[in-house]
Amino acid sequence: MNRQGALRLAQLAKHLAEGKLGHAVFNFGIWNGDIDSQTLSSVVTPHVCGTQGCAVGEAPILWPFDWTFDLGGKPLLTKYLSESDSGWAGNYSVSLTSAADWFDLTVDEADQLFAPHAEEMGRYYFWGGPVLTSNASKEAVVNNLIQFIRHEGYDPDELMEAK
Questions:
Q1: pLDDT at 149
Q2: Cross-sheet strand order for the sheet of 25-26
Q3: What are phi and psi of 126, to 5 degrees?
Q4: What is the tens place of the pLDDT at every residue in 65-85?
Q5: CB atoms < 10 A from the CB of 162, how many?
Q6: Strand pairing partners for 32?
Q7: Is the dihedral of CA 156, 18, 78, 80 positive or negative?
Q8: pTM for this predicted structure
Q9: Which of 130, 122, 96 shows the shortest CA–CA distance to 110?
């Protein structure tokens, strides 16, 4: 990961930590969606910015000139809009591919940082961060981002203060 990617990860971590989110509810299990008023469960609602979303779901709010939501509500880099109909960019979800590009990560690193993995609960990633499930708190996601930044050789505190 280059310095620009580390800076962006730090900006996202700071945004999440400060709690001034674009979504009313942080939900690590959904990119961007709504809450069904009858069942209070998560639903993906096309054509809207949902009331709940995950870390990557905040990217279009933090970086609106580079990121957007497609018509299905998925967050993605604007350069992938033409591929959003299928929901895939190559072999990976367009949202995950966008995150990998934006933060200068491999797709596997992006997947480990931004997607829940219930089947691996209780395990740890190579940088020391725990595997997160869909019910992970934003604080747990922030801690994983900070650990990853530090593992990559950058000072997260310094980056969070950078403009």
A1: 97
A2: 25-26, 52-53, 32-35, 42-43
A3: -60, -25
A4: 999 988 777 888 998 887 655
A5: 12
A6: 53
A7: positive
A8: 0.83
A9: 96
- The residue assigned the tokens 């990119």 is 31
Look at the block and give the residue holding tokens 């593992």: 151
pLDDT at 151 (0 to 100): 95
Q: What is the pLDDT of residue 118?
A: 63
Helix (H, G, I), strand (E, B) or coil at 86: coil
Instruction: List b or e across 14-43, with b for residues whose CB sees 16 or more CB atoms inside 10 angstroms.
Output: bbbbeeebbbeebbbbbbbbbbeeeeeebe
For tokens 């709010």, name the residue.
61
Tokens representing 124 are 């740890």
Query: 129, 153, 152: which is closest to 139 by C-alpha?
Result: 129
Domain edges within the chain: 3-161
What is the distance in angstroms between the CA of the first residue and the CA of the last residue of the chain? 19
